[in-house]
Inverse folding.
C-alpha cells in the first residue's frame, strides 16, 4: 500500500498533532509523530527509512496497530473523594482529598477485568495548605509494580486563630475524636 502523503502527516492523517521529520546519511529518513484519539496518546518514532513515503506508511501502521490492539481504562477518577484528611490548626479541620489526575491504565483491547489494589498514605499537616498542594500518595499495585500518584485538596485549608483552634480541640474531646 503506497501512501501519497507529504511529510506533513498533521494535514493528512486525522488526529496527528505533533511531528518532527529529518534525515541524515547514517540515520536515513526519520520521523517522530504523535496522535491523540479517544483519550489515548500514541507516539511513533521511525528511524532509517529509505523514503519519506515509507516513513509515513510505517508511522500510520504503528498508530493503527496501537489503536486496534490497546485501550485506556479509567481506574479512578480525579473527581472521586478518596477520604478525609485531618489538618490541625485549620478552620474546618477535615478536608476531602482526591487524585491530582485521573488514574488510567493502558490495556490490551481484549482485557476487561483487571486486578489491582491501592494503598493511601497521607501526610501529617498543620496550618495553611493550598488548593492543589500534595497532601499524600496513592500507591497503585498492579502487575507486580507499585506506582505512586499525588493526592491533593480541592480547596485551601486556612489556618485558624487561637480561640477557634481551642474550640475545635474541645469539640473533638467532647465528640470522642481525641
Amino acid at each position: 500500500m503506497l501512501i501519497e502523503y507529504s511529510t506533513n502527516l498533521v494535514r493528512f492523517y486525522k488526529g496527528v498533532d505533533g511531528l518532527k521529520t529529518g534525515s541524515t546519511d547514517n540515520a536515513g529518513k526519520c520521523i517522530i509523530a504523535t496522535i491523540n484519539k479517544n483519550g489515548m496518546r500514541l507516539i511513533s518514532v521511525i528511524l532509517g527509512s529509505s523514503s519519506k513515503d515509507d516513513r509515513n506508511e510505517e508511522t500510520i501502521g504503528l498508530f493503527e496497530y496501537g489503536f486496534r490492539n490497546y485501550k485506556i481504562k479509567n481506574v479512578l477518577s480525579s473527581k472521586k473523594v478518596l477520604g478525609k484528611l485531618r489538618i490541625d490548626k485549620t478552620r474546618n479541620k477535615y478536608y476531602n482529598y482526591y487524585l491530582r489526575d485521573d488514574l488510567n491504565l493502558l490495556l490490551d483491547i481484549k482485557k476487561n477485568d483487571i486486578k489491582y489494589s491501592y494503598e493511601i498514605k497521607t501526610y501529617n499537616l498543620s496550618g495553611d495548605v493550598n488548593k492543589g498542594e500534595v497532601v499524600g500518595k496513592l500507591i497503585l499495585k498492579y502487575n507486580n509494580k507499585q506506582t505512586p500518584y499525588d493526592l491533593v485538596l480541592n480547596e485551601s485549608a486556612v489556618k485558624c486563630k487561637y480561640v477557634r483552634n481551642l474550640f475545635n480541640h474541645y469539640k473533638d474531646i467532647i465528640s470522642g475524636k481525641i
